[in-house]
Design goal:
The protein has 2 domains: 99 residues, Arc Repressor Mutant, subunit A, CATH 1.10.10; 199 residues, P-loop containing nucleotide triphosphate hydrolases (Rossmann fold, 3-Layer(aba) Sandwich). Helices cover 33% and strands 20% of the residues.
């Protein structure tokens, strides 16, 4: 838990940054206050004595209880809590302290695994990618999920809401997005203030000749807020025409839809799978490819979208078309997933120094 992001009630706790995040609020904690909070959360719901906390957080130092009392008061102020009407940290007279709010980890984190009865059929989808329906049984990828979630929030800060996943077929690219990343971004608290309110996917294996814009528009028509379509009254053809002729109007519509949303950074998400089909299939001309890739820059740049793309590693040479931003080195770092090794360590990839390597097993 010491390095892992987790949630205490509705607050996101970032131990590495000594910070608490709730919507647009960011509260900085002193390192010692974070140590105490972590120790309480490691013993979630249990009464922890003052002596235990002092021994753990001030080892070998005879401090008495006063520093701990001050730290508890600091934590309560940061959390908006009180000693008389506690919601997060409760004082148990003559016994110690305990957390009241639920302590939970991001979807897919091993620490979130609890014994439960699975009623969704086989928990292993075979050769198919995991979908969001399998998020509760999608484990063993917490490091990759966490890295991607942090990278996505950074990309959004840079004004480049774009994430490119590289890897051979079967390495788990689609599963990582569908069952790991998106369920976290669509959770009630989002992640790092970023929350996906609706998402759609586009699989290039299903795209026919001459249908690029129409298929993209059809995917975007799936975006809904409170069961109301974002592009209400529009057809795939009319939305495709808007995308080609007046993309700014699409941006304005999305911004208006998200105007009063609770997330600090609400977003619509578009997941594009098997992008290698666009880059290699004889169904599409070079002009069509270039035009479509240029069009995909719209959801990458407008302040209400985030774009995920999965690409076969064998087409790494084509990534230059996709990953060159209008400015800034930070956006030119796709992720590479490899199925060549069974361990899951993140390592540097000498042949492609601009990539991160994810050594994943099978889906």
């Amino acid at each position: 838990m010491s390095d892992s992001t987790f949630f205490l009630g509705e607050w996101q706790v970032n131990p590495s940054a000594n910070s608490l995040l709730l919507g647009k609020q960011v509260k900085q904690l002193e390192p010692k206050a974070m140590d105490v909070l972590l120790f309480l959360c490691q013993n979630a719901g249990e009464v922890v004595s003052s002596d235990e906390i002092v021994s753990h957080c001030w080892p070998g130092v005879d401090t008495g209880d006063n520093p701990l009392h001050k730290i508890i008061n600091q934590l309560r102020r940061a959390l908006g809590d009180s000693a008389t009407e506690s919601r997060y940290i409760e004082t148990i007279r003559k016994r110690g302290y305990r957390t009241l709010a639920e302590v939970r980890f991001p979807v897919g984190h091993e620490a979130s695994a609890t014994p439960q009865t699975w009623q969704g059929g086989s928990p292993f989808p075979g050769l198919q990618a995991y979908s969001a329906n399998y998020a509760d049984v999608f484990f063993g990828r917490s490091e990759q999920i966490s890295t991607l979630l942090n990278r996505i929030s950074q990309q959004i800060q840079f004004g480049r809401a774009f994430c490119l996943i590289l890897g051979p077929s079967g390495s788990g690219k689609s599963s990582l997005i569908n069952a790991g990343v998106l369920p976290n971004l669509m959770a009630a608290n989002g992640f790092n203030g970023v929350g996906v309110v609706a998402y759609s996917s586009l699989d290039f294996a299903d795209v026919s000749k001459g249908q690029l814009l129409t298929v993209l528009a059809s995917a975007m028509l799936d975006w809904e807020l409170n069961n109301t379509p974002v592009f209400e009254g529009m057809s795939a053809d009319s939305l495709a025409a808007k995308l080609e002729q007046d993309p700014q109007s699409i941006v304005d519509t999305c911004k208006q839809s998200l105007k009063n949303h609770a997330f600090a950074t609400p977003r619509f998400a578009l997941f594009i799978d098997r992008l290698e089909v666009l880059l290699s299939s004889p169904l599409f001309s070079d002009a069509e490819r270039s035009a479509f890739i240029e069009l995909l820059r719209v959801p990458c740049h407008f302040p209400c979208g985030v774009n995920f793309k999965c690409l076969s590693q064998r087409l790494l040479s084509a990534v230059g078309q996709l990953s060159q931003p209008d400015g800034g080195q930070s956006a030119r770092r796709p992720f590479r997933l490899s199925a060549a090794h069974s361990h899951r360590a993140v390592a540097n990839d000498p042949p492609a120094s601009r990539c991160r390597q994810f050594n994943l097993g099978n889906r």
